[in-house]
Amino acid sequence: MVRNRKWNRDGLMTIEKKLLGTNPVASGDSPEAVSFDGHLGNNATDYLSRTTPLSNQADSKTFTFSTWAWLDGANGGLLYLGNNRFFITFEGGGDYFKCEGRDANNTRHLRFEAPTGLVPVNTWVNILMSFDMSDTSKRHIYINEVDITSATFTGSFPTYTNGTLDFTPAASSGADMTYRIGANYNAQSKLGGRLAHFFFDYTYRDLSVTANRRLFIDADGKPADTDTLAALNPIMYLPMTDADTAGSNSGTGGNFTAVGTLATAERGPNQDNCVASTFDGSNDYLSRSSISGLSDSKLFTFSFNASQTTGNAQIYTASNGQSSIKIESNRVYVRLGNTSGASILNFTSPYPANRLTNGQHNSISFSCDLSDTSKRHMFINGVDVTSGITFTTYLNQVADLTHTPYGIGAGATGSDKFNGSIGEFYLDTAYINLAAENPFWDSGTNRPNSLRKVIEDTGVTPVLAMPLLGNDAGNNLGSGGDFTVNSGPYTGARGGSEFFARSADFGGSNHLSKSSSWGNSSNYTFAIAFRPHSTSGFKNLFIADSAHSAQYGLRVSQDDNKIEVQQKNTSNNNFINAAFNGLSTNTWYVFLASFSVAASKFSMEIRGGVVNSYSTTSLNNTGQVKLQGASKLGGASAGSYGNFDGEIGFVYLSKDYVDISQEANRHKFIDQLGFPKDLTPLIDAGDVPSPIVYMKFDPSVALETNSGTGGNFTANGIDAYAGGLDVNS
After folding, report:
1. 658-714: per-residue pLDDT in tens?
2. Is the bond leading into 405 cis (omega within 30 degrees of zero)?
3. Which of 62, 410, 571, 628 is at 20 to 30 A from 710, Cα to Cα?
4. Number of domains in the chain
5. How far apart are CA 595 and CA 75, in angstroms?
6. pTM for this one?
7. Pairing of strands 714-716, 511-515
8. What is the extent of the structural domain holding 247?
């Protein structure tokens, strides 16, 4: 197996071109990072704080700073020492940052702003800088091993003077005595995203020397060993490998205190992470006039991850259609032509089965040997769909793959631009037997592999291996040369390694029903994600024991612009009648509720859009909740109670009590970044109680499939999967 090949931008790979978070680790490796809830804006609570002096602190003209960050696109403070005496903060949607340092007299000596687009969002990046204020030649800033110190700064450094920076703000009083990680000096502007391996000391290091960068980022683009960093005796080194130890400082300065309820991140920089870039459908695409080493061939393999927002558009094109991979009418369309322009391979992926849904993240891989009809395979999200394909053309001829120019995310000259996200694009003139072993899919995690891992596992460097990282989307890890980024840099998108919840389309006249035998209960925990297409009228989201309009056990409904929960006991007496206002159309919301007779407590939360509300009600009633009779999802009951018009994502109902008044319990269902979590591993591990209803709406199974213990639903006029859930507010 060939490993660690090195190519420069003309075809010779370099270690410096490796992207962060894309080197292989075992799929079972746990993430090492901590998540912060800055996406909640004024409702955010999470940061690390210290209000007493750091041990061994000192003013200095020199310092080194490093961290690993996953930014969700919100503004947020990263490091604040005192009342703006020294700070690093993210601005403008999180894709650029600024740094400022002052002396004890509050005179500014250091200020810079990194231009927008240099820090890719929604993926792991390493930020590394080192300065000596006495020498303008001794200043370095690296993002993902790329030196951005000079050419990337408009106007260079507005302030850079020979002065001592005040790293000892505790000598003053009030706000000057605060030390913050993940927020500014007054605990506002909280960070949204993830952090790991947070380092700060008073030493200048020449980061142009590779060995000095290797102290923080290894040759595989992963965090350096924790023992190595701790051995440097910095004033701050917070590994942040999990939430319980987030404030633990392996440096000399002393520990920080966690404020709010931090969580261990869903992904860490130690893991194999796919990346992606957003394409706006109007200006964005990649182009190249020729591809080095590409040859005409009967053998062909491609793979990519994509989430399309709207329309039909090209994924990859040579000579505006001589070779073409595109998404058209929710199917993948593939065409190869010969040197005469005649089609020799032509097919579309199966439909309606295995169709692609707008807003849904998909992984697509295909390989073929045109000389043999048994050697052709297509996989969508790890599922072999080859048998469902009708090949319009499949001829034993050589495909013209060298007809220039080339485009990714559009036609070769910029037509048919893609609207959505694309990541991990692979193309090579080789045949891979995907049916025997699919290197593009991790069956253990049921998620795609990064191209870094594909190259490492197969030992093959393909012609094109384009991770499509937001700030460097044209970077080709393959041998064919980098692409030109048109209208970049692009905004990063969540890659395929992240969990993407699915949804189904309830069109106002359709629903799922169940003649349930779930029994009654003194406890329950309920969760549902939904996006209303209309906020007028009374529409049921979920109802259990729906005998008629006056009798039910649990009903969660949309009542005009509010969500309402109503609940009765087995004597048909009201337990609960409560509501939240503020729903908007075409906005994702997650609603949580939990109930316990023994605890005399009912709690509920709704999150999404501008709404982030939570309440707890004490109970006086006794008895059980009626869950025994007929139940409906998205369906009407009698009278004016109508079918829900919109999309519904995951639905969870357990006869166990999870106290969602505790933030840590709410984050069992929604992570710190606001995205629904994959409940399956949590259920399997016992962290979330086994449910009677868990609707995942996974397109690989029938829409009415219930992954809980309560049996499948019956589909009533509904068969349409919708896009994925990005509930990030």
Report:
1. 999 888 899 999 999 989 999 999 999 999 999 999 999 987 788 899 999 999 999
2. yes
3. 571
4. 3
5. 36
6. 0.91
7. antiparallel
8. 34-264
